[in-house]
Amino acid sequence: MSVLARWREFRYAQREALRASNRPRALEPEPEPPSTTDPLADALPGLPIPDQQGGPTSGGTDTDVNGTAPQGGQRYGQAGRPLNRQSPFFMGFVGALGVLTALLLWHTVGRLGTVITLLVVSFFLTLALNPLVEFLTRRGVKRPGAVALVFAGVVVVFTLIGLLVVPPVVQQGAELAAKTPDYLTQILNKPVVRDLDRHYQIVHKIEAEFNKRLTDSNFIGQVFGGVLGVGAAVIGGIFQVFTVLVLTLFLLSSLPRVKQAAYAIVPASRRPRVISLSEEIMRRTGSYAIGQVAVATINAACSWIMMMIVGIPYAAVLAVSVGILGLVPMVGATLGAGLVIIVALFTEPRDAVIAAIYYVVYQQVENYVVAPKIMQRTVSVPGAVTVVAALAGGTLLGVLGALLAIPVAAGLLLLYEEVLLPRQRRH
């Protein structure tokens, strides 16, 4: 008889003993005399197997701590009934432990939501900048030098955008604060407002409510608390941006090692397929990010030139806003165009009409010439999938979710086409 057959016989004997121990005492048969042969001893020779009373079968005499043999030759006492894993108490206890573990993991993930978000953003930026690093490495630049050059370029771009946006915003904010009383006077002198004030005392009620709020200590505390909250949010945002940049730098420099470590946990039989799909997803994601940034930059530059020619005020700030909104898929360019048109409408209606005509023409050129030329190496996502992904991402993570939704949808679509469909065809 082989070792495997003897092991199966031993396991069968164990199950029979467990069933016998679970039967009521009144229905238990008379105990049979112990067998002279032990299946476990035959299956695993050379190991000291305990006998039915818990003592070793080494052949020696068992003694207690005082050197005397216990009654019946039982050194550790008779073994009790095995634990019944089918009992309601055992199942309920294990189930409660599982629920508590799941709640603990959910609570932990919830508290780490900000950290996970920063890590996802950093990884996305890493995938977006990695094609530039690989382009430099193919030209003979070592990876540390390529990472340093690309990261320095990113820092320079962000610095230029800050220098371009911050001074006009500060200047125009001061101008707006200085002209606010004049704007209020013009509004109050409107015939419609004067007529409403004559019939319903609107101005008097607004002034009374405003004075009441100024003398309310709770309102003042809420205002100062809101200001402090805004300040804390600004400081936190700056810290998070710095954290994302640092994480991006580390991930960009160690991306080959990170990918190698991730691929090492995949079974060897599936590793080539997983590596091929993962590399294609990361390549298309990075290409999509670079392409979307390029399209938004072209839109911002052309918008700035148009506003400078037409004479629309706040051209620099509006151009940067158009570029940032252009990163949002599907609706970002339209939102940027609407913002420019609204600002132009308040200054000169003729300029608003010119801006509207420009954006109608430009978006046709962008949709049919610029974007297809730049996005030709990225994965094509159907329009319905793009809209659903953008809405779902925006609902879950706001603007950040809308930005990350399209690459995620592209990766899932690639897995659907390359993994699920071929498997369904084979079966």
TrEMBL record:
It comes from Pedococcus sp. KACC 23699. Belongs to the autoinducer-2 exporter (AI-2E) (TC 2.A.86) family. One of its GO terms (cellular component) is plasma membrane. This is AI-2E family transporter. GO terms for biological process: transmembrane transport. The chain crosses the membrane at residues 89-106, 112-133, 145-166, 219-252, 293-316, 322-346, 383-416. Keywords: Cell membrane, Membrane, Transmembrane, Transmembrane helix, Transport. The keyword Secreted does not apply. It holds the Pfam family AI-2E_transport. The lineage of its organism: Bacteria, Bacillati, Actinomycetota, Actinomycetes, Micrococcales. Residues 18-78 are annotated as: Disordered. Residues 59-71 have a biased composition (Polar residues). It is found in: Cell membrane. Coiled coil: none annotated. InterPro entries: AI-2E-like. It is a multi-pass membrane protein.
